[in-house]
Specification:
Layout: E1 2-16, E2 22-29, E3 34-36, E4 39-41, H1 48-60, E5 64-77, E6 80-91, E7 106-110, H2 112-118, H3 122-134, E8 139-145, H4 166-174, H5 176-179, E9 186-189, H6 193-206, E10 210-212, H7 218-223, H8 227-237, E11 242-246, H9 251-259, E12 276-282, E13 285-292
Parallel strand pairs: 1-6, 8-11, 9-10, 9-11
Antiparallel strand pairs: 1-2, 1-4, 2-3, 2-7, 5-6, 8-12, 12-13
Helix pairs in contact: 2-3, 4-6
Length: 300
């Protein structure tokens, strides 16, 4: 048996019907003669979430806005181990493309319960259960620590001007594929150089400007520890999907305050350079928390 795992990713693509009923998309795959959630294998150098975003578009024709992570399905097929990562993804109203008839010959929009009854694989049904547990209509906030910077020992000038090192520059170039699927409404950043350089490739990739906020800097945090939290709290209240790039002493503390007394096992007390905490809210209340590790494939 080949012990190498095949990596794949997909999503529960959902929408609201005209009478406000949540529906999810199932596809029929003629090759396997089954009903499935949209999913597929990763391309070389592709992150799981980027693959899920691409596969949803290719197999359903719908562009989508990603939300909470729903889990990993592990199984063996033809003596090959497979892992499939799933997210929740809200569809835009009209399809943008048509899937290949060889890959998908029918798409149906069904209530989650109807979808569970039609799905062929038990593992897909369990992902629907997780989708129902978290629920739809969430708002996403991403707290991103800047990529790897020159050490303080290597930089003799003002710390706010300390730039990314070579590894950090490569990390920054790889970050867009992790965050494009969230369809960001705004990118906010500390005015420190290392933060600005981290989100610049993302800003260019999605065509949105960077909002620089001095209250998100380390210097401002040491002077007033509530200013950064107050700013981010206002972002949540303004709705939309926001990414905030700041520093390690700040972001985990803000995440803890935003979550309150809720316990999420994935919350860590420290962010490595390029790591991100992704918090999902409903009506201002945190309902799910995900963790995105810094890009590890620095060859792409």
């Amino acid at each position: 048996m080949d012990t190498q795992k095949i990596q794949a990713a997909g999503a529960v693509l959902w929408r609201e019907s005209d009478d406000d009923v949540i529906e999810v998309a199932l596809i029929h795959r003629p090759k396997y003669m089954d009903w499935s959630l949209p999913k597929g294998k990763l391309n070389r150098g592709e992150s799981h979430i980027a693959a899920a975003f691409r596969e949803v578009l290719e197999e359903t024709g719908y562009k989508s806005k990603f939300g909470p992570f729903l889990g990993v399905v592990k199984y063996t097929s033809d003596d090959v181990a497979k892992e499939v990562y799933f997210w929740s993804a809200k569809s835009y109203k009209l399809p943008e493309t048509s899937p290949s008839a060889d890959e998908v010959d029918e798409l149906r929009w069904l209530t989650p319960i109807e979808a569970k009854n039609l799905l062929t694989n038990q593992s897909d049904k369990e992902i629907i259960d997780k989708f129902l547990e978290i629920g739809a209509k969430t708002q996403t906030l991403i707290l991103l620590r800047h990529a790897k910077a020159l050490s303080r020992d290597e930089w003799q000038k003002d710390d706010e001007d300390r730039p990314l090192d070579q590894t950090g520059q490569i990390q920054a170039k790889n970050l867009p594929q992790y965050f494009i699927p969230f369809m960001l409404d705004q990118i906010c950043s500390s005015d420190a150089m290392r933060c600005a350089e981290t989100v610049l490739p993302l800003s260019q990739a999605i065509g949105r400007p960077i909002t620089y906020v001095s209250d998100l800097s380390e210097y401002a945090f040491y002077k007033n520890k509530s200013a950064a939290y107050d700013y981010i709290k206002e972002l949540i209240e303004s709705e939309g999907t926001h990414l905030v790039c700041s520093h390690n002493p700040i972001l985990p503390k803000i995440a803890e305050k935003l979550i309150g007394k809720k316990s999420f096992k994935s919350l860590k007390t420290e962010l490595a350079p390029g790591d991100a905490i992704v918090i999902h809210f409903r009506d201002g209340d945190a309902v799910a928390l995900d963790w995105i590790n810094a890009p590890s494939n620095l060859a792409t």
